[in-house]
Fold this sequence. Notes:
Helix content is 55%, strand content 10%. By secondary structure, it is of the alpha+beta class. The protein folds into 2 domains: 120 residues, no CATH class; 174 residues, C8orf32 fold (Roll), CATH 3.10.620. Strands 5-6-4-3-7 form a 5-stranded antiparallel beta sheet. Helix 2 packs across helix 3, helix 8 crosses helix 11 and helix 9 packs antiparallel against helix 11. The radius of gyration is 25 Å and the shape is globular. The protein starts with 8 loop residues before the first helix and ends with a strand.
Amino acid sequence: MIEITKIDIQKIKAKLRVKKPWDRVIILFLSIFITIPLFIILHQNLIELNWSFNLDRILLFIGVLGGVYLILFQLRTIIIICVALYLLVLFYGTVIGNYGFNQIYEDYDSMIYTMTYNPYPQDLIVSKLLPFPNKSLILKAIEYQNPKVRNFAVMATTKHFRNVKGYSEYRTLIQCFAAFKEINARWNYVNDPKDGDYIATASESLEYFSGDCDDHSILMAAAVRSIGGTPRLIHTKGHIYPEILIGNRSDLEAVNYLIKNILFEKESYGKSLHYHIDERDQIWLNLDYTAKYPGGPFMSEEILGALTLN
């Protein structure tokens, strides 16, 4: 006769549970790591009461920390198991030179720094969750601090629109439009290999000004960013293209005049500017390789993802 052994869940949980007080110490550290970004989001979005010694914010932090701690404490068994496995993975990554403890520290530090100086810190987290093809490779390829990329963008500003008078508040945009003009005038579309995507770095594309849409977008974003502009990449069905932040609706009026009457008068004659308005009412102008002027027609309308370089 086969004897069926009953599984005692309570005994298993007891064996896996970390002994006191170390379970509380681990939960406390986890709570602090989670509370910091949550507190930044609440701090930026809640009205300040202006209490003495920032007491309202101190109480807010303590409240968030307490709430997170209570939730994690109730789930402490499974959380501690997951943490242990995660630490093993990080240790393995550190040993073989892949993603390890140093990288996770740098990523967390970068996220907190960016959120602290971003008026909409929740957008940073949301943007990290949005799907974007080859995101890490593309970010790495946008070499806006590469001297070759920077020198190219500077060269473009000396070649185009250097003698435009006035519009000092739009000087950076005008210079970014100079980089756009130089890149798009020289760009030669070349397909990727048949067996998959080939992501060219910005400095690599400078050699022949050739590649597909993602290569063009990478070079454009790098050039724009290298001279102070704010670019983003838009992912649509089968296409990626760059855009540049021009500001609000009043800025759009000024930029529209600049493009159609001073900078790209012939190219934009009788045509409209094409742009997107984000959830913050900020205007993003199309810089696709098919556009003869900033704000040229879109190849595809449906946006599947966005990658912003702040």
